[in-house]
Amino acid sequence: MFEILRPTLLIDKEICLRNIEQMAYKAAKHNLRFRPHFKTHQSAQIGEWYKLYGVKAITVSSVQMAEYFAAHGWDDITIAFSLNILEIQNINRLAAAIKLNVLVENKEAANVLKDKASSSLGVYIKIDTGYNRTGIPSSRTGSIDSILEILDSNKKLTFKGFLTHTGHTYQAKSTNEIYSRHFDALLKLRFLKSKYIKQYPSIELSMGDTPSASICNNFEGVDEFRPGNFVFYDLMQHSLGVCEMRDIAVKMVCPVVAKHISRNEIIIHGGAVHFSKDTVLNTDGKPLFGRIRIQYKGEKVLLDNKHYLSKLSQEHGTLKITPANYEKINIGDLIEIIPVHSCLTANLMGYMQTTEGELIKMMPKY
């Protein structure tokens, strides 16, 4: 067994592979191109695991991430982030080497592509289907027409279709609400496909969010989906009802550094710089930053929701523990914390280890 001395993010490769296999099977079952989002793991090593299940096309969230994965052999990449016009030269270099798709949602970005694109480039129009973050509402077909007119004026640009991220499924209060929001987004995209398919016979619809990809089964009219978090899952997905605890492949292992019996609190080395400050609501109505698993009498025990990571400062984490379990945890013990948001936790850590001790490197930040 390898030694852990400080906060360490562990991933269970077997669970990751199972999650990838199940999502790849679902994509095949619904005749969808599986273009998983790699921003969750940001690792060329983990990227290779997807190839075992036939994945050939990927999604990323930045030009830098696209460059990283292109350098590791991926040659069909969608940058699922509204075009940053300041990076057009980098985009041109990348598009000259691989099959690259970008997103636009305004005429300004479309005009930059029209005037400065020097290599063949696929272009999706980003549609807002209810998340209210980025994208054009599906009802604003006049804005869509204006962008299409610009894109059509440069032969190097190929209009691929409409892309959405139904991110408001993460805010759902029930699985029924996830189904409802997914179906609403689906109807909006299908409306656009029916409107423009005569003009653009090869038009595609691309959807991507882990909650709906995990539990929904109506993808009629959709050509590809792009979930990302599913490879690890986390407490946020569990709280939404889209995965089981056994599906969560990540855990942060943190040393115990102090105990305070007067407050029934235990302090770990593991804070916001390791976990982020995303929370879910605990059963007591208070913010929960992570669930606790301890080693007791030779077995790993997942403690109930009366025990949880209740506070985070920069480097410190505070565990709320009942008196019955307080003495089971000692200074110097290693505590497993199941994180709320595995994407942010991995990004903050910058590296991972498998439960077998293999070091998993991630994309350099600079």
Report on the structure:
Helix content is 31%, strand content 27%. With 366 residues, it is an alpha/beta fold. It folds into two domains: 219 residues, TIM Barrel, CATH 3.20.20; 117 residues, Lyase, Ornithine Decarboxylase, Chain A, domain 1 (Beta Barrel), CATH 2.40.37. The strands form three sheets. Strands 2, 3, 4, 5, 6, 7, 8, 9 and 10 form a nine-stranded parallel beta sheet that branches. A six-stranded antiparallel barrel has the order 11-12-18-17-15-19. Helix 5 packs parallel to helix 6. The longest helix is centred in the middle third of the chain and has 22 residues. It is elongated. The two termini are 32 Å apart.
In CATH, the topology of the largest domain is named TIM Barrel
The percent of residues in helical segments reads: 25-40%
Overall residue-averaged pLDDT value: 97
CATH class division of the largest domain: Alpha Beta
Classify the secondary structure makeup into a structural class.
Answer: alpha/beta
Measured between the Cα atoms of the first and last residue, the distance is 32 Å
Concise overview:
The chain has twelve helices and 21 strands. The protein is an alpha/beta fold and 366 residues long. β17 and β18 (316-320) form a beta hairpin.
Keywords for this entry:
single chain, about 375 residues, alpha/beta, TIM Barrel, Lyase, Ornithine Decarboxylase, Chain A, domain 1, 2 domains, 9-stranded parallel beta sheet, 6-stranded antiparallel beta barrel, 12 helices, D-ser_dehydrat-like_dom, EC 5.1.1.1
